[in-house]
TrEMBL record, chain A:
Positions of transmembrane segments: 45-66, 133-160, 166-190, 216-234, 240-257, 269-288, 300-323, 335-358, 364-384, 391-419
Subcellular localization: Cell inner membrane
Lineage, opening ranks: Bacteria, Pseudomonadati, Pseudomonadota, Alphaproteobacteria, Hyphomicrobiales
Listed name of the protein: TRAP transporter large permease protein
GO (cellular component) term, any one: plasma membrane
UniProt-recorded Gene Ontology molecular function terms: transmembrane transporter activity
Automatic annotation (TrEMBL), chain C:
Self-association state and partner proteins as the record states: The complex comprises the extracytoplasmic solute receptor protein and the two transmembrane proteins.
GO cellular component, one term: plasma membrane
Family: Belongs to the TRAP transporter small permease family.
Protein species of origin: Roseibium album
Keyword Signal tagged: no
Protein name: TRAP transporter small permease protein
Keyword annotations: Cell inner membrane, Cell membrane, Membrane, Transmembrane, Transmembrane helix, Transport
Transmembrane portions of the chain: 14-38, 50-68, 89-110, 130-152
Encoding gene, per UniProt annotation: yiaM_2
Known function: Part of the tripartite ATP-independent periplasmic (TRAP) transport system.
GO terms assigned for molecular function: transmembrane transporter activity
Amino acid sequence: MLILLLSLLVLLVIGVPIAYALGLSALAYFLVEQPMLIGVLPQRFFAGINSYALISLPLFILMGFVMNTGGITGRLLDISNFFVGRLKGGLGLVNVVASMVFGGISGSAASDTASIGSVLIPEMKKRGYPAQFAAGITVASSTMGMIIPPSVAMVIYAIAAQESVGQLFLGGVIPGLMVGIFQLAIVWYLSRKNDYPTEAVPFTLAEAWRQIRRSAIVAVMPLLIVGSVVFGIATPTETAGMAVAYGLLIGFLIVGLTSLKQLPGAMRAAILTSAKIMMIIAFSQLYIWVLALERIPDALAAYVISLDLGPIALMLVITAVILVAGTFIDVSPAILLLTPVLLPAAQSVGISGVHFGVVMVSGLAVGACTPPVGNCLNVCAAIARMGIGEIFLGAAPFLMANVLVLILMCIFPQLVLWVPSLFF
Amino acid sequence: ADFTFKYGNAQPESAIRSQSMKFFEEELEKRSDGRIDVENFFGGVLGNEREMMDQVTTGILQGTRGGFFADANPAFNIYQLPFLVADWDEMQCLVASGFTDGIEQGAATNGYHVPATGISQGFRAYTNNVRPITKVEDLKGLKIREPQSDLMIATGTAIGSNPIAMPFSEAYQAFKQGVIDGQHNPPQNIWDFKIHEVQKFMTLSNHMTGPDPLIVNKAWYDGLPDDLKQVFDEVAVEALNQSDDLYREAEGKVIGELGEYMEINSLTPEALAGFQEAVKPVYQQMIDAGHFTAEDIDAARAAAASCS
Amino acid sequence: MDFLIALDKRLTSVLEWVLIALFATFLVLVCLLVVLRYGFASSIYGGNEFVTIAFLFTSAIGGAVCITRREHIAITFFVDMLPYEAKKWTYIMGLALIAVINGAMVTYSIGWISLAGHNPWQPFGWPQGIVHAAVPVGCGLAVFYCCLKIVLTAAGRESIDVLWMPED
Ligand code: NA
Ligand code: NA
């Protein structure tokens, strides 16, 4: 049993990709402890990739790429700027608001960082904001891309935990909006303190109406996606497929034929992104099978019950574990590794799988913005040409909002569960 | 222990199928003087039903119970034929009969040992939101959820309903939105999935049930000494008898509770005859598929009636 | 060496077009199923199963392509601190280990498919071994790519500045 954990640790440290490190440590376990059962290896790999529900993964990723064309991001930034740009620290607020809206059409935090950051970071620097502030708020606000539905991370969790995608999507709505509102407050406070500039955008009703009309075609997207999944109009997989089609249509209407020419490249990128996550899912199935054979989750659950912590204290402990794990591991592998181990323990004290999942995804979103391993930081570092440590220091004040929301979610499960309870 | 019997099923530990296997574990370990160690894995932790069946095939697991019994012997499909038997008594008689012994022995050629066969969860009942089903014509045009099964879809078509294949887990939501009108399942399933909350009428049509064989890797079983083989088979028969009794008992109880949510009716003899007439084409379709013959069906019915 | 580099490029390009074609197939099928259901109250028999098959081959082959594209998710934080030669040989050892696990998958899939492969795949009734073949195909390609990369890296023809790309 020890061999399973130690070999995984060594393999990860020497830089073996997480997918294969999981497979190799399971292989080591079988060779040493259960040579008779080694034939299960290819079966579990196959079980991992044989999933209709997971087809939504490349589709949601492709949707993000398709919606990420310049024209669409531009319209979202325009409307955000029109409504909040004239306030103190205008572009900082625009950054957060745009991420709230963009979060609704993108399934991942990193694509949010890339699309909004590449426009706003240079613009904010030009207007006299410190580079660290500009990069920091971009990274921190992009966490909403994972929390506000749709969310690729929620889909992966839904499959790992066998929970409803629709309930998880809805569970992320209030926490996601809360993160945005708290971050707006922090931006506003820092902007007053440091006297950051405002944008000159005269307000007329006609212009307001024009902005709403221009953005509506994009902004209805989250409602269509969530509505389709929640009301069972189509399965999450079908919904993702239709969303790609809708995204292509909008892209075509806004930027014309160029959007279609980029399609094969976007498809290639989406399929490779999905394939590397699928490999982690496939090989983690070997690892999880060994854990089940050794009855590790049962033992952990029994241990947690013996501690007699109560749901709130346990949720806070789990959140701490998630935050620590998230600094070292990327989002999808962390979900796949932690869910089968921690969820039975959480359920043993009556915590629901939906509550647990939204807390986990929100916690890992913070991990995506913390060194040493954080994909939002990596993306931002490439855009802003800054070091990841520097960006993290800029993001830290805003990530306080995320941590505060996490703690509130642990204490008040209704923040997560209330919206799903209205529909399910 | 000299031998380890690793067993898995998809249902949680609290389910009747799992409970009867806990009985199997205790009894077999006791009566083999600890020479056979039974390790039960419930809740599908080692894989879904399809995957566990494959694990039995390749000797990773030694036993399973689930929906893929046709891999052991396609003739097991015969137990699912609509209106094959009249009631619990007949079905319990059938699974204990020489006819069933023959099908169990047929599994040997495919590499499986089947020491005993039970009844899967009991008999199916229709529920819907449109009207009470008092005769087969009442099902005409109703959109009924079916599992992805050729036999079930053929039956749904034969009785005049409009069968819609969808996962059972999505049925609850589909009822709420009125996408489908009804479904059919054993009463315990209806209760477990809270279908009664979103349905108005239930008809105890008892139109279908299914086999629940304990499927064992034959190579493992052949490795047991003769005395242990005998103990193993005896305990298996007792465990599946217990399983059938528990299902039967629970069915009566759960129908009572369902009555507080839905209007429940049974079929009159004339209505039953109408149903039996309507499903006749299904029998021919299944015979044409080659799993069993018309003679097999007659033999099964004779075996089912042999106890009374 | 130049031949191996050309082989890597050509094979990867062919496989990527196969992936795009498979992806396009299930994207169109998924949308078509919705349109058929709401527009024409009908369906394609086994449509979802076909989509699943296309997807699992895409994942298995894509996983191999991700090796040559260095797309896999790894923690390179510690290895990046090593001096050049040590980093290079650690990377080569990692590739060898990836070849080992994928080789094991190919080896053990033979017994699995020969035993369980003849059971029917619902609802087509095909032997499920046809679908299981995704495992040896994908993992076999992965072994091939590992060997190719080991030779090229050892010969100094591969940059080791960025070992594996982060998740995006
Ligand atoms: Na999102
Ligand atoms: Na991190």
